[in-house]
Amino acid sequence: MKSVVYPGSFDPITLGHLDIIKRAATIFDEVYVCVLNNSAKKTPLFSLDERVKMIGDVVSEFDNVKVASYGGLLVDFAKQHDINVIIRGLREITDAGTELSMAQGNHTVAPDIDTLFLATDPKYSFISSSMVREFAGYGRSVEGFVPDIVNKAINDKYKIN
Ligand code: PNS
């Protein structure tokens, strides 16, 4: 059984993320969506538990997709689950620098773990979680950016109609 981990902050999960999950689920036998706790980096909009619950609801139709959260290094999560492939989406060329550094850093500390990249579907390439947070924070609807379940959670949080 070939498993892959799709890591991220997912604050919140977007339609671009969901597209990568769907495609990864057709390539690999099992996909672990791993919500990493990057609390040192930024104040999250949704708590770790809220994000895991929302992603679980969004991917419930896929039998081979699991959702987890982790507070440590991604490579340690991967090792604990016998996973040696990380998958990430590339939205645009400017993503490539940071993504390559992360992939190379992870491969250096864990040489048996490789990162594969999927090109984001162009119709989602402008979408980012930070853009979603910004629009929502100013009371703008983010319908068309995020799955319906997430859109509803954001509307409830920000009292957007
Ligand atoms: O959705 P993001 O914020 O672009 O995802 C970044 C993420 C969570 C994949 C990255 O920050 C990460 O792997 N964090 C866990 C800590 C870790 O393993 N760091 C070493 C590689 S940078």
Summarize the structure.
The protein is α/β, with parallel strands linked by helices and 161 residues long. The protein has helices spanning 15-27, 48-58, 74-80, 93-109, 129-137, 148-158; strands at 3-8, 30-36, 65-70, 85-90, 114-119. The longest helix has 17 residues, at 93-109.
What this model shows, in words?
The protein has helices spanning 15-27, 48-58, 74-80, 93-109, 129-137, 148-158, and strands at residues 3-8, 30-36, 65-70, 85-90, 114-119. The protein is globular, with a radius of gyration of 15 Å. The model has no long low-confidence stretch (mean pLDDT 95). It is α/β, with parallel strands linked by helices. It has six helices and five strands. The structure holds 4'-phosphopantetheine. 4'-phosphopantetheine binds next to strand 1 and helix 4.
> What count of helical segments does DSSP give?
6
> Which cofactors or ions or other ligands sit in this model?
4'-phosphopantetheine
The coarse overall form would be: globular
Across the major sheet, the strand order is 1-2-3
Query: What is the CA–CA distance across the termini?
Result: 45 Å
Radius of gyration: 15 Å
Largest sheet: 3 strands, parallel
Poorly predicted regions: none
Instruction: Output the helix-strand order.
Output: EHEHEHEHEHH
What class would the helix/strand composition place it in?
alpha/beta
Strand content: 15-25%
Percent helix among the residues?
40-55%
Quote the average pLDDT.
Answer: 95
Task: Please tally the β strands and state the result.
Answer: 5
How do the strands and helices of this protein lay out in sequence?
Layout: E1 3-8, H1 15-27, E2 30-36, H2 48-58, E3 65-70, H3 74-80, E4 85-90, H4 93-109, E5 114-119, H5 129-137, H6 148-158
4'-phosphopantetheine binds next to strand 1 and helix 4.
